[in-house]
Amino acid sequence: MRFETKFDWGNKIAIVFAAILFPVALVSVYLRHSHHRDSFPDYCFIFVTLGIVGRVFLLPWSLPQYYEVRDDGLFIRQGVNKTLIPYASLVTIHPAQTARPLRVFSMDRLLIATKNGERFVIAVAEPERFLAEVAKHCPEMKLRHSRLEVPFTLLLTA
User: Fold this and answer.
1) How far, in Å, CA of 142 to CA of 47, rounded?
2) In this structure, is the dihedral angle defined by the CA atoms of residues 74, 77, 133 and 148, taken in order, positive or negative?
């Protein structure tokens, strides 16, 4: 079953704003720089250009984003990164409130931890339904209070 990523409205507005603002800023800097060479430093032109290039190249590498609950594992697609996590390796999936800049476009995030220490941060549009669907494939995991986790005693015996 496929689950779409969640996009916060603020992030959608920021992406559109950046797509409009950066080209306008580039033209403005170029026009000011070409007419007043001594009054406008060269590094401003370079920073604006790098900002545009960064936005143009980084955004496509972050899209598309979706998550699939498959028979063979949990599939995560975040741009060019594709990961299949076997259900047997899952330890916990729980809400994560982190301000770190990640490839997800929402602050309502889920942290996925595996037995080998890998961590994945995702933003699912329907987290409760997503957790319930994963729980169907992981009978050893227990769903409690928006958290899906392996009981501590099972971790000790593994």
Assistant:
1) 50
2) positive
State the CATH number of the domain containing residue 115: 2.30.29.30
The model's pLDDT over 82-115, given as tens digits with 9 standing for 90+, comes to 999 999 999 999 999 776 656 788 888 999 999 9
Q: Cα–Cα distance between 151 and 158 in angstroms, integer?
A: 11
Q: Which residues lie below 8 Å from residue 73, measured CB to CB, with a gap of 6+? A: 84, 85, 86, 87
pLDDT for 23-46, tens place per residue? 777 677 677 666 665 555 556 666
| Residues 99, 69, 102: CA angle, nearest 5 degrees | 15
Q: How many folded domains does the chain comprise?
A: 1
Domain span including residue 83? 1-158
